[in-house]
Amino acid sequence: AQTVTQSQPEMSVQEAETVTLSCTYDTSENNYYLFWYKQPPSRQMILVIRQEAYKQQNATENRFSVNFQKAAKSFSLKISDSQLGDTAMYFCAFMKRNGNNRKLIWGLGTSLAVNP
Amino acid sequence: GAGVSQSPSNKVTEKGKDVELRCDPISGHTALYWYRQSLGQGLEFLIYFQGNSAPDKSGLPSDRFSAERTGGSVSTLTIQRTQQEDSAVYLCASSPGGTSGLGETQYFGPGTRLLVL
Question: What domains does chain B contain, in order, with CATH numbers?
């Protein structure tokens, strides 16, 4: 069964510094998608970044980048130049595909606090 | 364009009552998902709709839960005879459809917080 593990329930970082959030997953599939979402106190689930497993290049979106290690089944998120608005819960998710069916399998999340 | 919208934003109900939660996906998105987010269980998949195909209902926790999607657009999640353990945030998401990374990417609504007293 696919599982997603986020080993850091809480983290904090000083404004303008860099922080890395960890995620590992388990799957026997070879072609799949991984996502990071953030959920601020407003409750809105916001897409941060997507990684296609067939791509060797790590995905980057502005200050957000991933370190995707397919063999190790690791998918960490790096936030550079942290801002106060980055304070949120961060969820790692794996897209499970079964024929025509789709669903996201979620980690339990990491609560990130960016301190001024 | 407009994002995914959900209504109501919050719902308080009494145990045993039925509730309906609504989701309006992003225009043109063919896939629609419902998830439940609760303190004890994290985020759980409930149901998946894709176009005119039969939905994947494998995540519905009991037969008190049902969902429909009319005209390939708006979806309603219905919980009958609500129980206190149904209290959670119900999130709806839509995706463009197709097997590309972009097509598979889900965009979420703001959720409905349900409290069963």
Answer: 5-111 (2.60.40.10)
